[in-house]
Design brief:
The chain is mainly beta and about 240 residues long. It has two domains: about 60 residues, no CATH class; about 160 residues, no CATH class. Helix content is about 10%, strand content about 35%. The strands form three sheets. Strands 5, 6, 8, 9, 10 and 11 form a six-stranded mixed β-sheet that branches. The protein has a five-stranded mixed β-sheet with strand order 1-2-3-14-12, with no helix packed on it. The protein has a three-stranded antiparallel β-sheet with strand order 7-4-13, with no helix packed on it. The protein is elongated and about 80 Å long.
Length: about 240
């Protein structure tokens, strides 16, 4: 109603309806009618006509998201355990500590993800840095993705991009353990996305972490069909449905 007033249109409260389709209160419908003066119809004594518009939009879980950054978050993070997620608290994402000491489980993967499906983790440092700085502008569906070797995390381009995002909200993919395969060829089962506000980041050669808090987030992407979405971590997409 406030947006309509800014555009010179008055909408009655009865013209706005909220309903539930896939989840509670996920659909909004707005109907508006406004008299407009006529031109040629004035010859017949008709000085105005009602012009109407109808539209409906729906918020839902994404089946694919855009502008995702290439750092994975485990679903086990304590701040993702609230109902509904995410929790309201500070947390730390360990970028290197993806495996137990002495195991080969994801050793050397540094929590970096190749956002191109079936790419074998071969994405270049320049593209990886661009994804960190601006997000990947291609649709990223849920599914299996490969890890990126650790030397690309330590590149100056990626470190500069990561430092530039401190103070920003970044969209990260969330994976469901266990990590598939092992070592530098690790693969992650991506089941959804979460927004993370980066308060600070630290890098110490063979270790690193991000500190901040998860947020609710309206992403660009493709809404999933019934039963086809990822897990709800507070990220939604909106589309016109009528």
């Amino acid at each position: 109603m406030a947006y309509a007033n800014q555009n010179g249109v008055t909408i009655n409260p009865s013209a706005v309806t909220i309903s539930s389709t896939g989840m509670s209160n996920d659909t909004i419908k707005v109907a508006v009618d406004k008299p407009e003066p006529t031109m040629f119809a004035r010859v017949f004594g008709i000085t105005s006509v009602n012009v109407g518009a109808r539209a409906a939009a729906r918020a839902g879980l994404p089946g694919a998201a855009r502008y995702v950054a290439p750092i994975v978050v485990p679903i086990s993070n304590p701040q993702l355990q609230c109902t509904p997620p995410p929790c309201n608290g500070t947390t730390t994402i360990d970028l290197m500590d993806l495996h137990n000491p002495g195991s080969g489980n994801a050793a050397g993967s540094f929590a970096l993800l190749d956002l191109i499906p079936n790419d074998g983790g071969s994405v270049g440092s320049g593209i990886l840095s661009e994804w960190m700085l601006h997000g990947n502008d291609a649709d990223m569906p849920i599914g299996i993705y490969e890890a990126v070797p650790s030397n690309k995390y330590n590149s100056s381009d990626f470190q500069d991009a990561l430092s530039a995002r401190v103070g920003d909200e970044v969209l990260f993919p969330v994976y469901q353990p266990p990590i598939i395969q092992g070592g530098s060829n690790a693969q992650f089962n991506i089941i959804g996305w979460v927004a993370f506000h980066i308060d600070s980041q630290t890098t110490h050669g063979s270790s690193g972490s991000l500190t901040g808090h998860f947020t609710r987030f309206l992403a660009q992407g493709i809404m999933a069909g019934p039963g086809g979405g990822g897990t709800n971590f507070g990220v939604k997409v909106v589309q016109l449905v009528e």
